[in-house]
Structures are given as C-alpha cells and as structure tokens.
C-alpha cells in the first residue's frame, strides 16, 4: 500500500470516511479532473460534495489568488475591514443580489456550512422570540449541535450524545404523497396539535445528502405562503444546492420565492476555500455587534477567489450552458433506468444535482466502486446510500461529461450482467 | 470616510464588530505589521485573536503555499487522502507529538475552533454515555450551539435564542479564592448535589476572551487528578492558548498534564488559514466513519502552511525566544501598573498571552483606542471589557516589541494625565 | 352575589376556571345530582370531568368509608403495608385483571392523573434507554412538566415557561384522514426522518379534553402492531376514558389490545377521592425501590372506596346497562344534529363519553351556559371549546338521562331559534 | 409471613419502599400511635414523612369529616365553588395569613407536593420570562419532571430517563463552609459566569430528605436579599418543613423573610388527606384561567379537615408547646451524641424536624431497624441515608416523646455495645 495511506491510517482518527471509498492519494487537480500519486487520472463527478462547482484550481481565480498572496495582501482579518472583503461585498451586490432584486445584508458567520446554518437558526429565534424550528425529513444542515438538531440522518444524530431539541420534523415533498403540506398546515392551525408556531422553517430546495430529492416548485411556493401567513421565517439552506448547482445562482430562483434568510457556503469561494455567508433581509438584521462571531470569518484568500468566481454570473451564458448540459445528463440517466430495469432505478434531482436511486440493496455503492476503478469519482447519498449522485463541475466540457456518463453506463451494465461476481 | 468602509457599512450585517474598534481598511500585512489603505503602518498586538502567532504572511510558508498552488496541488479534498495531508500528519507526529510522548489520533473536524470543540463534546458524550459537560466561569469555546453551551459570556449565550443545556458551570481558578475545586469536588462526591458525574470537563489553561485568566499549574493538576478519579474526560481547549502562545506548543505542557482530548485551531495553519484538529487518545477514538464530518475538513492550503510552520518547533530555540521576550512584556506591564496606580491595574496571563485588568470602568477601551491612534492594534477582553490584552506575534523582534510596549505606556500615561479629555 | 363566591374571588388565584362557568356554590351532592347553597338542584352531566363515574357519594362506598374512619383505620400510610391496601390489590386482581387475562403489577405513583403519567413516561425511558415519547395531536395527559410535554393544548403548553422536550407529536386517528399511521410508520422506518425510535407511544383511546375524538379500533390495533414491531412500549392513558366511561372497565378492551403500561386515576377511587395506579407488565417492572415516590401514594380512604366500587364489575350487568343507555344518548345526539342543521354539528365519542362538535363559533359554550340555567351541568372540550361534552354518571337512571337529554335539546332549540338574543 | 404482605409482594410494583423497612401490616392508628395486624403498638416518629403533624385520626377533625360525609357534602368539586372550600379559604386567611401580615392568593394546584412545586416553577417562569431556576444541593421537591429537575438526589434524578434541564444547583448553607452565598453572588454578578439570572430560587428552610440540614436564618435573609436585588422570585418549598414542623406555621417565620411563592402540602389537610396549595403574592397572580389545572384540586374532604386543623393555630399555645418539647428532643439527641462518641454523630435540624447524622456507614439504618423492633417507627434521610430522623407528631404528649427518645437511646446503646451482632 501507499506510504501516504499508511501514514493516514496510522495517525488520523477512524472517523475518516471518503478515503475508504476512494483509497488512493491525490496530488494534483485541474478543472474537472484529478490525479493520484500513481499518475492515474480521474474524472471528478463528486466536486468536493458541491464545493467545487467551477472545478479544481480554475486559472482565473488562481492568478488572482497568487497575485494577492505575492503582494502580501492581508490573509486573516477577522471582521476588520479589508479591501478584499469590500470588493467581494460590492461585486456580490452588483452581480448577484441587485439583478435578482434581492437586498440581503451579508453576514460572515464563520467559513463553513454549519456556521451559516447555526447563525440563521440563532437569528430566527432572536427575531421571533420563539424556540422551535421546523425542519424536514431527509434534511442535512451540519454537524454542530444546532445544525445537527435540524438534520434528519439518525446515525449522525446519535453522534450528538444528547437529545436534540427545539425542532420539529415535518414531511418533505413527496415523502408519502403530494399532501405533506396538508399535514403541516393542520399541525399549525390546530391549537391542540402540540406543535407550536415555529421561529422558522429550514428547507433545502433539493436535498443532497438526503438522497437527491427535488421539491416541486409548487411545494416550495406553498411553503413560502404558509410561512408568510403564520409569521414564520423561511430559511433556505443553499449550501449544497446553491451557487449554480441547480442551474441558477440560488436554487430557489426558478420557484420564484424570496427566503428571509439564505445560507451559502461550499462553492461560494469558487476555489474550494472555506467561506460562508448568511444572507438576511435588512429588517431582520438585528444582531448586536459581535453577538455571533468566529475566528475565520475574514478569510481573505477566499474573498479574492469568490470575487473572481462571480465573473461566471455576469450574464446568463453560464446558466444556459448548465441547462444544456443538464439535459444531456438527465436524459442519459433516464436511458440507464430504462435500459437496465434490473436496477429498479429512479432518476432524481434537477440541474447538475442528479442521481439514480436504486431499490436494489447495495447497488449504488457497487456502481460508484466500479466507476472509481474506471477512473470516475462519484459518491452515494440517501439514508441507506441507495442513490448514486452525479455532481460534475458546472463548467465541464460536454465531451468529458459524456465520457463520464459512458463510464457510469458501462459500470451499471457490468454489474447487471454479472451480479454474482460483484 | 473611505469608500470601502462605506461599502461594508452598507452591505454587511450589523453583527460586524472589530471594524467598529479599528475603523480603517487594511490592505497589506507582513510579520507583525499591518498597513491600511492610507499607507499608515500598525504594530499588530492583536494577531488575529491568536490566529497569527507567527505573524502575517511568513515568507517561508508563503513560498510553500504559492509553489503548491502553482503546481495545481489539490486544494479541497474533504477527507480523501492527499499528499499535503499525509505530510502534515507525519510531521505533526514527528515534531510535536512524539517528542512530547503524546500518541493522539488526529481528527479533522472542520476548519474552525467551534468545529473542534463540538467534535470533542460529542465524542466525550459518546465514549462515556453521559450527557453533562462541566465548563468553567469565563470560558469561551465557540458560537455554535454545542460550544456556546459551554461558553460563559451572557450576551453570547442569549444570542442562542434557546436555553443552553447539558452543561454545568463551575468556578475557574481564583474565581472567588483558591478553593474553587473544594466546591467542585463536593458537588461530585455528594450523591444529593444535583450535579451528575459529567462526560467531560472542558478547560482553557489560560482564558483569553474571559479576561486573560491564567490557571495555576497546581489547579490544572488537581483538575486532571479529579478527572482521573471520577472517570471524567479532560478536554483542553487550546484553540487560543495553544501553538506557542503561552510559551510552549501546547499550553498545558508546563503543568505536566495529559488531556484526553485537545482542541487546536487558530494558529495551527500558521498563515491565518482555517484549520482545526481534535487530538484524541487512541483508546477513545471510537467514532463511526463519517459520524462527524464537514465540507472543509480537507483544506490543503492550510495543510501546506501548517506543515511549514512546524519548522519553528524543530528544536527548543523558539521556546527560549518566546520566554525571553515574554519576560520583557510581563515586567513592562508590571511597571505600568506600579507607575500608574490610578488605573487600579492587575497584570494577568502567562507567556505571550498577557494583559492588564483595570478596575476603572471603560479605561481598557480607552487605552486600546489611544493605542490605535498611535499605530498599535490591541483588543479588550473580559466580561466587562475590563482587560486590555497583548497578543503580539511570537516572533516579533525585540525592538518592535519594546516599541509597542512604549506606545501602550504612553497611552496609559496620556489617559491618566488627562482623564477628562478622554 | 353569594358571600362564599365573594370569599373565593377574593382569596383564590385567578387560575380558577370552572367557577366561572358554573357561578354558584355547591353544598351537597348525591348520585347524579348536585345542589347549590340556594337549594337549586342540578343534573350532573359533568361528573367531575370523569372522576365521578359512579355518581356522587354512593351509599355503599360511603358506608364502607365511614365505618373505616370510625374504626380509626390508618388514613395515610405512604407505601407501608395496610390492610386497606392489600384488600384493594387482591380485589383489583380478582375482579378486574384476572378475568381479562391481564397480569399487570400495580404501582401507586401518587394520587393524581399526572402522577401516573409521569411515572409511566419515566419507566418507559428507563426500560428502553431511549428518550423520546410519541404523543398525539389532541392528547391531554397532565400539567406537570413531563405530562405537559405530551399534551397538545398550546395554551397549557405555553404555561410551562420552558420549551417542552423529548417528545414528538404525531397525528391522531382521522386528524387529516384515515392514513395518519402511514405517516407515522414512514417516519419510523426512514433512517433519515429525524424521528428516532421512541421509548413509548402514549395514547388515549378516546380523547376527552382534545374534543371527544374516538380512535377506530382498527387504528388502535395498528398502533399496537407498530409498537410491537419496533420494540416501542405502548402506554394507554386511561385516566379519563377508563373505569367504565366507554362501556368497559378499560377503554381498550373492545379493541382487543394489551398495552405495556396503563394509567388509571379519576374514577378509580369511585368516590371522587384522589387515587391513581400505573399498571405495568411484570417484565417491565424494573424500578429501584423508591426510585419514584410520593407522599400520598397510600391514601387509604381511597383504597376503601375503590375496593367497594369494584363490586360494580363483579359480573357483566353493569357493562350491559352502560351499553343500553349509551345507545339512547348517542341516538338523541344524532337526532339533535339532524334536527338543527344550523349548528353544523357532528356527534363524537363512544360509550358514556360523547358530545357534539359544532362548527358555529361559540355555540358550544352557549349551549352549556343555557343548560346550566336549566339545571344541567356540562362542560366544553376541544382546542377551541367547539364541543359540548356529555359525561353523566354511568349509573344514572334512564329517566334522568332522558330528562338531561331533553334539557340539552331544549337549549339547542332555544339558541337556534333566537341566536341574536344569545 | 402475613397473607397481606404476600398479596402486596405479589401484586405491587417493586418500586415500593417503606414496606421493606417496616415489614408489617398496619391496620389502625390514633394520634402518635399505630397498630399492626398482630396488635403490636408502635410509637410513630415518622408521621407520614411530615404529612401527619397532628398525629393520626385526630378526633376533632374526624368528627367534622364524618359529619360532612354523612350529610352528603360534595366530595369532589374540581375548582367549582363549594361551601367547604370557601370556609377553608376564609379561615386560612383569618387564622394564618392575616395575623402574619401575608396577603397571598391561594392556588389549588392539585393535591400533592409535586403539584404545588410544579405550579410554582411554571408561574415563576411565566412572570419573569426567564427559564432557569436555581435550586440547592440536598434539595427535594418531588418526582414529576419539573420538580425532579430541582431535586438533588442522583438516584431519583436518573429515574427521569432524560437529562433534567433549565436548572442550576448552588451550594446550600454550610455545604462547604459559611461562604456558599459568596459563590452564588459571584455567579450572578459576573456576566461571563455562564449562569443567567434565574426566574426563581427554590429553597427549603430545613431540608428533610436531604439530611435534616437547617439553614441559618442569616443565610435565608441573605438569600431573600439577593433575590430582591436581582429581581429573582423566592419560592419557599414548605411542603415538609411547614405546618408547624419547625415550630411555627410557616418554617420561614423565624427568619423574618417573605417569600414570593410558598408551596404547602403534606400536613395541610391535618388528617393525612391529599391537599396542597401554592401561595402567591397578589401581583404575581397572572395565570390565565385554567392555565394550570388538575382533577383533584377540589378535594373537599381535605378542605373540611384542613379547616378543623387550623384551630391549632388560633393562638400561640401550640407554638409554645412545640417549642418546649423540641428542646427536650434536641437536648436528648445532644446527649446521645455525647454519650456515644463511637457513632460519630452530629445533631441536626430545628423544631420537630431533627435527627442525628452519623459518620459510621450503615449505622443510621441499624438504629431505625432496632427501634422498629422495639416499637418505634423512624426513617433515615440524607444522600447516603446517614441520618436518622425524628418526626413525631407535634401534639405528642411529653411522656410518650420521652419514651420514644428512650427507645432511641437504648437502640444506639445496644448497637454501640455489640456492633458485631448487628
């Protein structure tokens, strides 16, 4: 085995996970490709679980970052003012918020997804004076106690070691049928239901870890309408589905809703560097100075690359490109499901956030393992890892997208032909 | 006012704080100095609240980082294996753990201080099957719900919007007198005390945010002894006091104790980049794969600079240098307290983590404001901001350290002379 | 106004409630009748909210009680042994448990409904090592924090002043439709639902305070089946529906289910004296001695009357009598609903636990007020007090039952005719 | 063995406790004496754990009770008005509250100690809008989740099966030394202590279950003063120490303090019947009607006996009698401690609530067992059952008090002489 794998196995905690599925040592990465220490090349259909929507080490961002470092630009600034930060704020406003008629205030809650979710929950409770948050089945929001309380996965929840409180789980769209909101509303309007009017609902428009479940726009619109009617804040956790992954910068744009609070992280920095923001409607921005803080909320390297990444959104060409390629992806997956009925598959998702859920136990893990052998990296999702999940870089060239899809098709075919051997 | 300040005031959430104390825009930084957009130079006695113990943009680390970026080294790897990670693990073992006869497993819990604290609390509860954590008055551990539950500051706690649970606060060393552990032990041994044997105690050896309170070594040794006797895990939160800040790599070395779990972040990456580790005694490393995870737990830029930073610890010369300079600092502060009895000051802390607590309300804020005018950056600490806190880079040249101390002396003198004008 | 009413208004807390609906002073009561200080006679269709199923001051029980008192029988015995207690235990076993093939252990958890519910929840958590309890919309279980946590009413819940925890509310039968258990099961079987397998479910077979909602036997059987399948304990709270109120001693007999734990109180003593028991399957009886206790768990006066009350259940004649009269009641209510379509009424309940829910806001309160004027006492129920609720003594003579029903019919008629005046 | 003991062992839950220490079957009781089914007579120095301060079956109360029952007086009235209730309220005001210049409103929260404690905690949280309650080491307040959360005993707490929340335990008087309030105040005034200003403190002036710990009056006065200064409500739980047990009707009278809320139960009814009240300063009586309720809050039998019992307090003769006899008791216990240094005893308590704490493990249990043999009933208390506790009826004749004390002296002597045989 590799000496480096040895080192990791010897020194790193057993909590490590992806190294178990992708047992090799990566050294280099560019755009939608990665290379390991043996020089083997991989197509990356994983993209850092959505943190690398623009691929690896994008040249434009790289240049900006190296120039900044070479000029001894300030690296770590807490929430003091820096030029890098001001530039990011201005451009984020000009390129993203203003054209979409959104006037959010930008909070830097610490650089990770769970930081932004925790800040959103705290603010919602502070604004409303209520304690409960409604979250949804299949939701994934993070690993710290506040975020974990609104996360559905039972293995992760048990990791808390304490009862997780002040949250109520409701059924996501299509959980049982199309009527999940009938239940939700009944609980809210009935004064004897045991469910209090919550501070907020926290929703992913497409659930990633939960198994690539895409809510219908109609469902999202109804959620917004219910929130408005009852004075409940609507938090969209766009950590995974945002930054173009579903085809638009924010995942909720196509549904036509305007959340009260939005959580962004993962691909926000563009380069895979830690960065997160919490977007807050101005009238809700009632924090005391420093009431929520964090050491790495001023990660200027990430400001620099994030600012560069916004160039992708200056006009609608990128959206169109994503849309076009996502159709290819979707159609190919549909074909796989049709061609191989043995896998009892269902295509899920929207945009560049798609996958196949298979009712055959263990199949998805086998597909991803087979793909890895063939030089394609892809992960599983869902409570029983029943989904294999395609997360290519949004700017992957069409030919390499097709090449990747062929590897998947071949892997499925291989497994279907010779189930015993696998 | 600066256009960039305008931008920030307009777009960033009111939660921003340090910009209020240091109302200028920083552009460049090197070693122990910073420059704003007007070209004004500052001595940095703040060091990113302890995240920049080696100063800004250290040339050695910078070179390693730029080389890595230029070679398209993998930037974001979740917890897949990368050469950058393996190198960090090996060197951390060789340079830090092995010489200190520590055999911790290294967990990457996400890149911030609150991530490592949350992982430590979760693991302690999982290992022991108990729910309570004992924390201490004046403790600061983070802003997410788990970490906030063990943090003392009432303004921050109220920010949670929910009751914070599963924790018991005990009196830190010297809280009332030297007998705080008599109370603690009585609570533990009395079956009618209402305090259950906890999963863990979480302790800072020197409390930073809490007001630069340094626990006596004897107190820390007794804490360890109590933990051993009752089967309680000892978590040292070394996020702020670690990485040399008190004079040794770990702040607990001089006390001769061996915690069960150690939390490190802030200066770990050396360059101000987000990185954190949770160090775990091997027999406690019982996580399930992926039971705690996080998108940015594989921040390879930070691995590269962190590895380079470890060169500071290859022999004991750095420790000696810190020790020598810390004596200068401590003696100067003692002299200030003696020279200006009007400030009713008390020198606190140890190593490069020192300050003066003043009983004169508002004085510390005035001192830091005056210093800022004079080109020195320094923050306040303590529940009532009653302490001004000196956190220079550990590798600051002696002459600039003295220069900074002179600015402080001048500022105090100025305020004492003309209290009305200030 | 009455001097006694004055005294009460002056000295008793504003929390008092029924005195507001029945503003007179009661002095005497016998069987199904009450008299106030003015000598006015009332038919009692309220029966102490189900605590007086055998009517007031039953002569047989009264004689036993007075004899016991006159002989200086021990009154208060905590859980020391007394002859009165032993006699109750033996007779309860012989007359109630054995014929029904139930072998429960009997716990005396304190003399009120909330005591038995709290003991049941504690035991379920202790036995399973789990923390959550599933309760149901519309459920009412008591006012102490544990019981209140499983109670649905939002006004009562807010009275807690703290978030109520460790419980999950699911939809009771017919809450939205007949499929409520499809949702419940989906939540249990989905590892990503955010709902953990609970320690227990606590269910009323007919919800009294919740608005006289009678679950279908099929629903109850499915609940039992789900509990068995997942190793969840089934607690039936029979405090209000038990002791004959639905036609059988236990309310769950007709559904053919065997709960793991049963809560009884209210009419258990027969005479309106405080008494409660928690019935526990022998294999679950793992309490430590004194782990749950209470000063009034040995209320011997209540043992004496409870023992006497069991004579009602020596053969099946009482059940038959209840059944016959309940048909009269049910049919009359159906006729009222049909005769007065203006009240938009729906008949609810089963046995001697019935009522009419009216969609006309405020109507039920007006009906009960009008009845009170006419000498009939009856209360409202449901989250919006939309139900008027008939709870006559089970042994009320047929002619007085009919007389009471006529008063109700008259009251409704009166209100329908002249809605303005009312 | 007795047939009745057999019945109980066979049918009652293993949670039963006192029957284990007093393994006989009681049939009859009068004043300060009890008889078992074998006709053996016992002196009762236990008094129903404080529920029988006037002894068993007091003739005056008995006559009133039987007359009431014979006249078919209303037995169970919820919180409807009854003459029995009005008479109790008026007399309680005239005999108890008015002469002591107390103007509390009287709430009937359900008939047991835990009911009144739960209502007090709820009201304190409602009034202040805060969630935390400060309770004290050694405190005992009840077995339902709210009351259990403020109870110290770890075995009882573990019986909850869930973490007990929203409470902070502080050191009772003399817990470590006389300075426990220095700690308490420091925690309150320090904004970084992690302890929020609570809704209330709940205190017993003498802790019964906790081991007969009597707080100094000075300590109680300081507690009151701290509560006033910080706007914290002061709840005195007088369930066990009240109704004359310490020599005055309320246990706090001698300390000269005026609590905001007082909890009474146990001996309130005088006859051992379940009854409790929560006394509330008028300005705090902000309940909504029915916001806290309970089936047995109108236990008229108890109103009748409680009213009769108040005759004991019409003048100060009863207080004087208690005082005189308590001196005999206290002096005898002091003599026992002096005469038998082997028991390493300490006399504790005040009034008729006294005991000896012995450092010899298991000794107190042996003393009570030996006394039981000799015809005296007495229980142990304290977290390790290290105290034997004398709770005679307050109206015990001097000669029988002395006789009981002689039995105790003899038992101790016997054990000291022949420790092996015991």
From TrEMBL, chains A, B, C, D:
<keyword id="KW-0663">Pyridoxal phosphate</keyword>
<dbReference type="InterPro" id="IPR015424">
    <property type="entry name" value="PyrdxlP-dep_Trfase"/>
</dbReference>
<keyword id="KW-0032">Aminotransferase</keyword>
<dbReference type="InterPro" id="IPR005814">
    <property type="entry name" value="Aminotrans_3"/>
</dbReference>
<dbReference type="InterPro" id="IPR004637">
    <property type="entry name" value="Dat"/>
</dbReference>
<dbReference type="GO" id="GO:0045303">
    <property type="term" value="F:diaminobutyrate-2-oxoglutarate transaminase activity"/>
</dbReference>
<dbReference type="Pfam" id="PF00202">
    <property type="entry name" value="Aminotran_3"/>
</dbReference>
<protein>
    <recommendedName>
        <fullName>Diaminobutyrate--2-oxoglutarate transaminase</fullName>
        <ecNumber>2.6.1.76</ecNumber>
    </recommendedName>
</protein>
<dbReference type="InterPro" id="IPR015421">
    <property type="entry name" value="PyrdxlP-dep_Trfase_major"/>
</dbReference>
<dbReference type="InterPro" id="IPR012773">
    <property type="entry name" value="Ectoine_EctB"/>
</dbReference>
<comment type="similarity">
    <text>Belongs to the class-III pyridoxal-phosphate-dependent aminotransferase family.</text>
</comment>
<dbReference type="InterPro" id="IPR015422">
    <property type="entry name" value="PyrdxlP-dep_Trfase_small"/>
</dbReference>
<dbReference type="InterPro" id="IPR049704">
    <property type="entry name" value="Aminotrans_3_PPA_site"/>
</dbReference>
<keyword id="KW-0808">Transferase</keyword>
<comment type="pathway">
    <text>Amine and polyamine biosynthesis; ectoine biosynthesis; L-ectoine from L-aspartate 4-semialdehyde: step 1/3.</text>
</comment>
């Amino acid at each position: 085995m590799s000496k480096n794998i040895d080192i990791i196995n010897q020194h790193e905690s057993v909590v490590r996970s992806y190294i178990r599925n992708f047992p090799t040592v990566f050294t280099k990465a560019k755009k939608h490709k990665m290379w390991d220490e043996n020089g083997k090349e991989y197509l990356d259909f994983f993209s850092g679980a959505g943190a690398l929507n623009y691929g690896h080490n994008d040249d434009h961002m790289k240049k900006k970052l190296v120039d900044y470092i070479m000029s001894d630009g300030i690296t770590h600034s807490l929430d003091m003012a820096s030029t890098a930060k001001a530039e990011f704020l201005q451009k984020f406003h000009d390129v993203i918020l203003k054209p979409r008629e959104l006037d959010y205030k930008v909070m830097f809650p610490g650089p990770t997804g769970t930081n932004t979710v925790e800040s959103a929950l705290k603010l919602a409770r502070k604004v409303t004076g209520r304690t409960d948050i409604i979250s949804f089945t299949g939701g994934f929001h993070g690993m710290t106690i506040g975020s974990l309380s609104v996360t559905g996965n039972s293995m992760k929840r048990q990791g808390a070691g304490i009862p997780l409180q002040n949250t109520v789980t409701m059924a996501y769209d299509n959980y049982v049928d199309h009527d999940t909101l009938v239940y939700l509303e009944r609980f809210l309007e009935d004064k004897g239901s045991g469910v209090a009017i919550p501070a907020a609902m926290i929703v992913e428009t497409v659930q990633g870890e939960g198994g690539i479940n895409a809510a219908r726009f109609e469902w999202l619109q109804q959620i917004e309408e219910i929130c408005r009617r009852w004075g409940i804040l609507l938090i969209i956790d766009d950590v995974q589905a945002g930054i173009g992954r579903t085809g638009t910068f924010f995942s909720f744009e196509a549904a036509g809703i305007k959340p009260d609070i939005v959580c962004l992280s993962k691909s926000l920095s563009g380069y895979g560097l830690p960065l997160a923001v919490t977007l807050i409607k101005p009238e809700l921005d009632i924090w005391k100075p420093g009431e929520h803080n964090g050491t790495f909320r001023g990660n200027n390297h990430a400001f620099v690359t994030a600012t560069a990444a916004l160039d992708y959104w200056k006009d609608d060409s990128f959206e169109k490109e994503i849309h076009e390629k996502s159709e290819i992806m979707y159609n190919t997956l549909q074909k796989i499901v049709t061609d191989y009925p043995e896998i009892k598959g269902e295509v899920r998702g929207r945009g560049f956030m798609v996958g196949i859920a298979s009712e055959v136990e263990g199949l998805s893990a086998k597909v991803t393992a087979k793909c890895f052998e063939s030089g394609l990296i892809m992960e599983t999702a869902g409570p029983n890892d029943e989904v294999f999940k395609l997360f290519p870089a949004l700017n992957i060239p069409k030919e390499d997208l097709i090449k990747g899809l062929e590897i998947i098709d071949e892997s499925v075919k291989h497994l279907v032909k010779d189930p015993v051997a696998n």
